[in-house]
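Supplementary Methods S3. Input chains for the assembly prediction are listed below.
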Amino acid sequence: MSEETTSVHYINYLQLDKVLDAQHLISDIKGKAAHEEMLFIIIHQTYELWFKQILHEIQSVMDLFETDKIDESSVGVVVRRMDRVNKIMTTLVGQLDILETMTSLDFLDFRDHLSPASGFQSHQFRKLEVMLGLKIKKRHQLGGCPYHSQFEGEKKEEILNLEESDSLLALAEKWLERIPFLNMEEFDFSKKYEEAVNEMLEKEIAGIKSANLTEQDKALRIRMIDENRKYFERVLDEKEHNKAMQEGETALSYKATMSALLINLYRDEPILHLPYQLLRSLVEMDHKIAAWRFRHVQMVEKMLGQKIGTGGSSGQGYLKQTVDKHKLFTDLANISTLMISRSYLPELPKNIKDTLGFNYKK
Amino acid sequence: MSEETTSVHYINYLQLDKVLDAQHLISDIKGKAAHEEMLFIIIHQTYELWFKQILHEIQSVMDLFETDKIDESSVGVVVRRMDRVNKIMTTLVGQLDILETMTSLDFLDFRDHLSPASGFQSHQFRKLEVMLGLKIKKRHQLGGCPYHSQFEGEKKEEILNLEESDSLLALAEKWLERIPFLNMEEFDFSKKYEEAVNEMLEKEIAGIKSANLTEQDKALRIRMIDENRKYFERVLDEKEHNKAMQEGETALSYKATMSALLINLYRDEPILHLPYQLLRSLVEMDHKIAAWRFRHVQMVEKMLGQKIGTGGSSGQGYLKQTVDKHKLFTDLANISTLMISRSYLPELPKNIKDTLGFNYKK
Amino acid sequence: MSEETTSVHYINYLQLDKVLDAQHLISDIKGKAAHEEMLFIIIHQTYELWFKQILHEIQSVMDLFETDKIDESSVGVVVRRMDRVNKIMTTLVGQLDILETMTSLDFLDFRDHLSPASGFQSHQFRKLEVMLGLKIKKRHQLGGCPYHSQFEGEKKEEILNLEESDSLLALAEKWLERIPFLNMEEFDFSKKYEEAVNEMLEKEIAGIKSANLTEQDKALRIRMIDENRKYFERVLDEKEHNKAMQEGETALSYKATMSALLINLYRDEPILHLPYQLLRSLVEMDHKIAAWRFRHVQMVEKMLGQKIGTGGSSGQGYLKQTVDKHKLFTDLANISTLMISRSYLPELPKNIKDTLGFNYKK
Amino acid sequence: MSEETTSVHYINYLQLDKVLDAQHLISDIKGKAAHEEMLFIIIHQTYELWFKQILHEIQSVMDLFETDKIDESSVGVVVRRMDRVNKIMTTLVGQLDILETMTSLDFLDFRDHLSPASGFQSHQFRKLEVMLGLKIKKRHQLGGCPYHSQFEGEKKEEILNLEESDSLLALAEKWLERIPFLNMEEFDFSKKYEEAVNEMLEKEIAGIKSANLTEQDKALRIRMIDENRKYFERVLDEKEHNKAMQEGETALSYKATMSALLINLYRDEPILHLPYQLLRSLVEMDHKIAAWRFRHVQMVEKMLGQKIGTGGSSGQGYLKQTVDKHKLFTDLANISTLMISRSYLPELPKNIKDTLGFNYKK
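Predicted C-alpha cells for the full assembly:
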C-alpha cells in the first residue's frame, strides 16, 4: 500500500483547487465586479456537473442495452440508474428557484459582457439530447445554422458521430422488439387483445344507447368512443401502424408498441414488473426534461421579458418551442391510450402465468 | 365563559366527522370497490380545500386594494398573503407526484363511472380564474358552450357577477396608476428614462460598429437592438402604447406600466421595496398557476395518453392550450424588457431620495 | 343504467357541500374573525385527509401481508403502495412551508380559543403510529396519562384493539421469516457469509498493519474495525442476536434479520429486486415520518418559541423527543452495518442463480 | 473593444475544461472503476460550489452590516441575499435524494479507498460555521483534536482568524442594538410592554379561575402560564436577562432582544417590515442548516447503518449531535415566546406611527 493511499484528503480527492478556482467574474475583469455574476457562474457550473453525471448514467444504460444483458438482472440496474437521472432532473428543475433570486436589474449589471456566449453552447446538453434520440431534423431550428456549428474540432465530431449511432430511444425500441412475450406458446396476445377491445367498445356503445340521455349527449359520447377507436385500430393492424409511422404520427415500431402495451397491461406479473418500471422511467425522464425547459422559459421571462438572448436567439421564444417539440418518448406515454380496464383484460393461461412468475416455490 | 369554551376538541374543531366521511367510492356503489378511487377522491378534495384557502387570501387582498389602504401599511400584508398563495401553489404542483402513482390501468378500474363529471366543473377554480382577471372572451373555449354553463342557480350567478366586477388584475392596475411617484417635484421620470434609454442604445450601437466583428455579425446584433427598441418606444410614447393596447399586444395602461417600471428600476429605495415584492409576487403566482397547468397536462398524458376526457374534452389538448393562453400578468413580467442597467439609471435628486427613504434618522 | 349514472357532477362526487362547509372560525364565533384561522383549519383538514389515504394504503398492505399473497405478484403492489405513502409524506413535510407563513403574531389572534384542543388528539395519526408498530410502552409519555385517554368510546376501543393486533412491522418480520431463501439446496447462506466476513476483516487488519501509518493511526483504525465486528458477531451467532434482543439493542428476529441481509446483498438477482424495494420503502417511510416530526418541531419553534402547547404539552419539547424515539424500522436500516463489499460476496451456485432469476429464456 | 470581447464562449466563460476534468475515480486508479463513485464525487463538488456561493453572500451581508449601511436601503439587499442563501439551502437538502440512490452495496465498491478523507475536512463548511457564529467552545467535539487540526497553513490560519472576528450573529446583534426605536420620543417601549404583559397574564388567570373547569385542570393551566411568565420576567428586567446570559440560557444581549421583540410586534409598520423579514431570514437559515444536518444523518443511516465513518468518526452519532448543538440563532426564534396578541399590543402614538410609516403622502 503506497503512501498515497494513506493520505487521501477531502480537498484533494475532490480536486477543489480546480473546481473552486474556476469562477472569474468577467465584470471584474472589465473593471467593476458585479456581485450577482458569481451566482450566474456557479449555478451554470453545477448544471454542467449534473449533466456530466446524467451522461455517465445514460451511457452506462445504453451499454447495458447494447450488450443484450438487459434481458436479465440488468433491468433492475437500469431502473435504478434511470431513477437517479430522474432525481437529478428534479433537482435541476428545483434549483431554478435559486437563479430566479437574480432579477432583471441584477443581471443587467454584467449581461452585456457575456455576448455572444449562450447556454445554447452547452456541449454536454447537446450531447445528451442526441444520445437520447433527438435527431437534427426533428430539432427546432435556431436561425439558419445547424446547432453543431456552435462547436469545433473534436467536440463537433463527437456530436456528429452520436447523430449516427443508436440512441437510447432506438436501443429501447430494439429491446422491446426482442422481448419474447408476444407469442407465448398457445397465447396469441394480438388476437386476444383485439377481442377484448371489441368487446369493450361494443359494451360501451350499448351502454350509451340504452342510457337515459338526450340524443345529443348520446351522439357526443359515441363520437368520443370513435375518436379513441382509431388508436386501437392502428395497433390492431400492422399496416395501419406502419402507415401512421410514415405519416409521422408515431415513431415506435409495431412490434415494440405491442411489447410495450403487453408490459403495461400485465405489469403485475412479477417478470414484467421491472420492465414496466423501466418504460415508466423513460417517460418520466422525458417529462422532467420538458418541465425543466418549461421552467427555464419562465425564468427567462422574469429576467429578460421579451429581450433578445445573448446568443442572438429570440430568448424565450426559442426555448418555448423546444418544450413540446424536443420530447422523445411520447409514443411510450401514449401506450396509455390503448389501455383497457382489468375487467376486459384477457386472462393468461396458467402455464404462461407460471412462466411469467418466479419459480422458487417448487 | 361557557362550557363549550372549555371543551374544544381537535376532532370537533376541524369537523372531521364531515370531512372524513365524504369519501364514497362510486365503484363501491356500483358493486366493486376500486382501491385507487380513494386516492382520486381525496386528492381532489385537498385541491378544493386549498382553492378555498387561495380564494380567502385573494379576496382579502382585493378588499385591501379596494379600500385604498394598500398605499400604506397594507402593502406588507398583501405581500405576505401573496407569498402564502404562492407557497400553496408550490404544494399543489408538487402533490401531482402523488396522483401520478395512480397509473392508467388503476384509473380504468373506475373511470367509466365518473362520466360526465370533470375537473372542468370545479366552481372554485373557475371563480379563482375570474377573480384574478381571466375574462370569458380571453378564455380558451371548450366545445361550443360557455364555461359557466357547467353551473346553475347561485353558483352560476356568482360567476357571472364576478365577470362584471373588478378583478385582481384591474385593482393592481388602479393601484399602480394612483401611486404618486411619476411626477415627483422636479423629477420627471419619463423624460429622464427616455434620455437614459437613448444614451444606452446609442452606446450599444457605437460599440458594435467599432467592434472587431464581421459585417454579418454586426448587422445581426444591430437587428437585435432594433428589436428591443420597439418595446422602449411603446413605453416612451403614450400614443404608441395605447395603439399597442388596441392591437392586443399589451393590456396594462400606460400610467400603470410606467409606475411598474419605476418600481422595478428603483426597488432598492426603501419605500419601493415592498411594492416591488408585490409586483413580483403577482408574476410569481401567474407562473405557478401556469406550472400547475403544465404538470397537469403531463399527468393526464401519463394516465390517459390521447384518450378523451370524462367531460368530453380532448383531454390534454384543452389543458395544453390554457397553459399559455390563461396567463394574466404577462405585462408585469414584460417590464423586464424595459429594464436598463444601473449604470444608465438616472440618479434621483437627493431630496427625492430622502422622500423615498425613511425619515427615522433625523 | 339508472339516471343517477348519467348525472355525476364533480361537486357531488367529491361531496364538496360537506368538505367546503366545514371551516367555522372559532374566532368568528367568539366575535372577531381572525383572517389566519382559515389557514389553520384548512391545513389541518388536508393533513387529516392525507392521513386517511395513508391508512387506506397501509391497511391494504397489511391485508396483503396477512393473506400470504405477498410472496408472489403482490410484492409489486405493495412496493407501489408504499411508494405512494412516501410521496404523500413528501407533500406533508413540504406543506409545512405553507403553515410557516402564519407567524407568531397571527397565531395569537385566535390561539387562546383553541385550548385544550391539540394535534395530539388526531385519532388517525395515533392509529397510524399503532398500526405501523409503535407500542405504548415504547412511546414517549406526555404527562401522566396514556395517550388513548384522549379518546372515548369506539375511537378508544379501536386504538386499544390495534395495540393487540399485528402491526406492519410484525407482519413484515413474519414475511421475512418465511421467505425460503436462507437454506437453498446446497447453499448455506449463514456459513458462506461468515466466511466472507472473516476474510474481509482479516484482510482489512492485515492492510492496516502493513500500511505506512503511525502506530497511533493503526491502533485507531483497528479499533474502528473491532467496533464494526460486534455487529457482525451478533448476526453470525443466533444466541448473541437473541441476547441483543433481550437487551433492547435490536427488535428484529434472527431469521428475519438474516433474510433482510440476504435480500440486501443479492438484490441484483431478479427475484430479490422487488423484496429489496419493499424493505427500502419501509425504511424510507420511517425516515419521512421522522423528517415530518423534525420539521414540525421547527415550525412550532418559529410560531411559539418556548411557549406551552394548547394541549398542555411542553410544545416543541415533546415533539422533539418523538423524532428519534418513535422510529420503528431502524433495524432494517441497520442492515447496512452488515453489508460487505461485492468483492467479498459469496458467489451463488449456478443452479441457485437460475432459481432466483426468471425462467422465460428457455 | 478588444477581440477578446467578441469571443466569449460558454465553455470558456465557465472554465468547463477545469470543472469537468476534476473527476478522477480513485477506484479507477486502484484498478477497478466503480460506476457509483462518479456520483459521489460530483455531488460533493456541487455542494462545495454552493458553499462558495453561500460564503459569497454571507460575506457581502457581513460587509453591509459592518459599514453600517444596513440601516437604510441595504436592508432590502440583505433580505434578498439571505433569501437566496435559504433557497440554496433548500436545494442542498433536496439533493440528498440523489445521493440516497447510491446504496450501501454500491458505496462499499469504493469506500475503503477513501479513508481517512471525510466531509469533516470541508474547509468551506467549517468557515461558514465560524462566520455564522459557531465558536469552538460551543462546537460538538469529535475525538480529542480541535476541528482546525484538519487544516494546515493558510487554510488553518484563515479559520483561526475568523474565530477572532465578528460573526454574522455578532453583527446582527450590534445592528439590533443600534436601531433607534426603543426610546422614541414619549414612547417608552419597555414600560408599555410590561403593562401589556401584566394585563394579559392577569386576564388569563382570571379567565381560568372563573371557567367551568375541574380544580385539577385549573391548576394545570395556571402552571402553564407561570411557566411562560419566567420568559417575560427575564426580558422585563435587564438584570434577570443578564443573569440568564451568564447561565447560558440566552446569548443575545438585553438591548438586542428588546429591539428584536419590538420589530416582531410592530412588523406591520412599513419601516419595520424589512427588518422583520431580515430577522426571519436568519432563523430560517438556521433551521435549514439544521434540516440539512438532520437529513444528512438519515442518509448516513441508510448508507452505513452503524458503521464507523471514513474519518474515524462514529458516523451518524457525531452528525446527530450537531443538529441541535450547532444551532446559532435560537434566541431570535425564541422571541416568539415573548409575543403577545395584537389585542394587548400597546398602540403607538400617532406621531410615532407617522415616523415609522412613509412620508410620501403629504
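The CA atoms of residues 208 and 221 of chain A lie 7 Å apart. Chain A touches chain C at residues 1-3, 5-6, 71-73, 75-77, 180-181, 207, 210-213, 217, 267-271, 273-274, 355-361 (CB under 8 Å).
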